[in-house]
Amino acid sequence: MRRHLSLFATASRYALIGHARNRFAMLLVVVYIPVWIALAYVTIPDQPAPFRLRATGEVLSPPGNHLTQITGALNAVTLIAGFMMFAATFTGGAFDRRLAMAGYPRYHLVLAKLSALTLVCVAISVYATAVAGFAWTPRQPLLLTAALFGAALTYGALGVVFGSVLRREVEGMFAILMISVLDVALQNPLSSSGSDSAVVRFLPTYGAVQASMSAAFSDASGGRALLTQCLWLTGASAAAFLVFRRRTRNALVRHRTPPFPAPRGAGANGGPGVHRPPAEPPPAEPRPAPERAGPA
Q1: CA-CA-CA-CA torsion sign (241, 245, 246, 247)
Q2: 198-227, pLDDT tens digit by residue?
Q3: Radius of gyration of the chain (CA)
Q4: Looking at the whole model, is its pTM more than 0.85?
Q5: Alpha carbons 86 and 99: distance in angstroms, whole number
Q6: φ, ψ for residue 231, nearest 5 deg
Q7: Nearest Cα to 124, choosing from 207, 19, 203?
């Protein structure tokens, strides 16, 4: 048991050190989240924006700037979590492969990455909830934090997938950016007239968006929406584990010594096809002992 804890602690320390060295991600957490939420609050009009919440069936009419703050917080946490996990997976892939080929258990590496991702998502979710509630207080702050946490975890797992599959860094960054922007924008009633369409139910953050809207502007429970988000999270985590396992597999081909081929063709008859060991000479026949001549 102590050996497993030591292996897990070592892998977790390396994972956290890798995140701490990503200074650009730290800057995004500290600056991008409050700037984005503050700009949404200042620039978007506070006129009511009625929409129907599919999770509860209620018709809500929150101010437009409050609504944009919630979607902006969701967009911010998904981008940051996805970027951080993509960067950690993309840059540390060779190191993880060497550890796995040297005999380091891959389950400990995966659990360490999951633990680091969980800590990062908890921090940015709590921070985003606090910033969003600076000017006004959401009705259910804990549910809002849980919704942001689920969305961040989902995109963190997707970042692991992209970091293991894509070959260039710009490809992964562009993929995470476009998926997150389209995902949240299509569910924002201010920017999309089809926010209550049946198609949006298949988007990665559908459950988190429904739960966060319910938490911010309603007293209804958003537990079912969180369960829906857990489905996406489970699928993304399973995909991340599979691609991580494939990336850290041993790519060396084990060569087996082929058996000595049976002689065939001309070599079987003593021709120049097969090297045959020299034949042993036949045993010498015993010679009769010479007769002795007796006395006459």
Answers
A1: positive
A2: 788 889 999 999 999 999 998 888 788 899
A3: 34
A4: no
A5: 19
A6: -65, -45
A7: 19
